[in-house]
Amino acid sequence: MKKKKKNAKGSGITRRQMLKGSVGMGIAAGSGLLGFPHVYAKNEIVLRYVASGVNAYQEIADKAKQDLGITLKLERAETIQANMLRAITRPKTLDVLDLDYGHVRSLSRMGMLKVIESKRLKYFDELSSIFTTGALAGRKLSTHGGAPFLITFLESSKGSKFTDKPTEWMALVPTVFNADTLGIRPDLIKRPIRNWHELLNPEFKGRTAIINIPSIGILDAALAIESMGKFTYKDKGNMSKAEIDKTIRILIEAKKRGQFAALWNDFMESVDLMASGKVVLQSMWSPAVTKVRQMGIPCYYQPLDEGYRGWCYGIGMSRALTGKKLDAAYEFINWYQSGWVGAFMNRQGYYSSVPHTAKEFMKPYEWDYWIEGKPAAEHIKSPEGEVIEKKGTVRDGGSFDERMSRIACWNSLMDESRYLLSQWQTFIDA
Question: 15-20+31-179+311-359, superfamily in CATH?
Fold first, then answer.
């Protein structure tokens, strides 16, 4: 296999250094894994891909068909939980699926995913270090919640135990990730916002909002509560029942005094709340902030002293996947990481798990804006060609290193997730 360039934004460590012992490279040249991918033509391969809202783009399916000859039967998952349930109960109805890193541990423990062989991944050596060493820009990353460097690699091909050291076996292949924080309306707040506790600050009574997804909303609440100095969590991303109770109690108190204008459920709802001015500070996603700005309304994705809430997605394989479809799945994953998709996702404010290849599909000024945190030398456009940021703008929070090295906790599925759901419903009903 051709030796790849060392990637400043990647792991900086080769496969040989990472893996314990010899992996072996006995892969048939005809498989396409040693060079350019094999293009399927006569015997069309169809991969059933159950994608998250982050990845469910027809453009990706169309490009895969063009480059590989593989037909992606794209299906958008209603929720990550629905995706997980399908992998458990109907594995033969899908081939590959998107998974939130915070949810993969439970599926792997049950043996519901096919273990992925890292030796078949063309860009393994170029994975971002957040998945391999757990360090970035001289900082050790937070282990709170579903930290990706703790739940990517498996100790053996049986897939039952995870390890923080890269091995020959993976639970899933990382694809995209990001750092989330609070969105604010600076024109309506008119003072600096530096901390998570502002989400619960009575000064903004009736003008804040929180996301109504229990596994995420509870983390935003925990960040705010710790910021207030009221409580310190052992692990914000994996709370005990007592910690969940305390968090929900504080949220109910805030709700009863009228703190929240809304508990939002989807992307556009968060956009409308902020654009209307009904809400001035809330849980938010990066593309939603951009959408508000496109309307000509001031909106900022605020870096906070306590750090960000991080999330990662990866592609997993159905345990029922075999034969030519299994080979095609590896082809698709290698193609996914080869750069075009990474650049497509970068232009939406997300990050690619293999940064170097994405760079090759971006113009220098795009890379400088999205990844290096430099002022935009030209107008910044979306994948559809729409101007989303004006020339001279600097990305909220700065560079990739500045943002991702300051993750305070990661999205996760807590051990007490069922209890959390019942308690969150108590909060909703209060």
Answer: Periplasmic binding protein-like II (3.40.190.10)
